[in-house]
UniProtKB/TrEMBL annotation:
<dbReference type="GO" id="GO:0005829">
    <property type="term" value="C:cytosol"/>
</dbReference>
<keyword id="KW-0238">DNA-binding</keyword>
<dbReference type="InterPro" id="IPR010982">
    <property type="entry name" value="Lambda_DNA-bd_dom_sf"/>
</dbReference>
<dbReference type="InterPro" id="IPR001387">
    <property type="entry name" value="Cro/C1-type_HTH"/>
</dbReference>
<feature type="domain" description="HTH cro/C1-type">
    <location>
        <begin position="21"/>
        <end position="75"/>
    </location>
</feature>
<dbReference type="Pfam" id="PF07883">
    <property type="entry name" value="Cupin_2"/>
</dbReference>
<dbReference type="InterPro" id="IPR011051">
    <property type="entry name" value="RmlC_Cupin_sf"/>
</dbReference>
<dbReference type="InterPro" id="IPR050807">
    <property type="entry name" value="TransReg_Diox_bact_type"/>
</dbReference>
<dbReference type="Pfam" id="PF01381">
    <property type="entry name" value="HTH_3"/>
</dbReference>
<dbReference type="InterPro" id="IPR014710">
    <property type="entry name" value="RmlC-like_jellyroll"/>
</dbReference>
<dbReference type="GO" id="GO:0003677">
    <property type="term" value="F:DNA binding"/>
</dbReference>
<dbReference type="InterPro" id="IPR013096">
    <property type="entry name" value="Cupin_2"/>
</dbReference>
<feature type="region of interest" description="Disordered">
    <location>
        <begin position="76"/>
        <end position="101"/>
    </location>
</feature>
<protein>
    <recommendedName>
        <fullName>HTH cro/C1-type domain-containing protein</fullName>
    </recommendedName>
</protein>
<dbReference type="GO" id="GO:0003700">
    <property type="term" value="F:DNA-binding transcription factor activity"/>
</dbReference>
Amino acid sequence: MSDRKPSEADGAMPADVGAALRRARKDRGLTLVQLAERSGVSQPFLSRVENGSATPSVARLYSIAEALGVSVGSLLGDQPPTGEPSVTRSGAARTLAHSDNTSVGDSLVLTDPTSGTLLTGLLHTMRPGHLSGDTFTHAGEDLLHVISGHVGVRIGEQTYYLGPGDSIHHSGELPHTFVDSPDTADDETIRVLIVTASGHPTSPQQH
């Protein structure tokens, strides 16, 4: 057995995202204006992300990745996948706002893109009454597992109400969003583990 230690996430975020975004965009021969048109994210904001002065929310990151035809995970780091195991230690996970509405909550990035997998793991922490309403549509599949609290997941025209210990697995190509659940207590914290298996390449360097 190899005695090589697994790589560890170090919490870096804005510069890594910006560099990965710039590389993916240029690899596809797109201008910032063209990417803005495809993703629905403004050109000035995309420029700020590339320059490391802004970090996109999870909602915007999904829109940008889908417009580029890459996985969300590939935009979370500037280093190519190594295929080596990657450990994210407690307290070291990178944090993204779940939505542009910062009162919604945060998402911890549990996976490191250098591990080279097709999976992106996020731990969403949300507050009742402040769910974002952002609708996601992307290639691949999602697996959601509710750790605490109660939440509704609207997929297409159907809403599924989930509680602690419940899971749901669905196609990412179906429009999906979080909604409030009638079972949610005002003072509870909603924590949902989300694993996305992307239908796009993991590396932004692929053509």
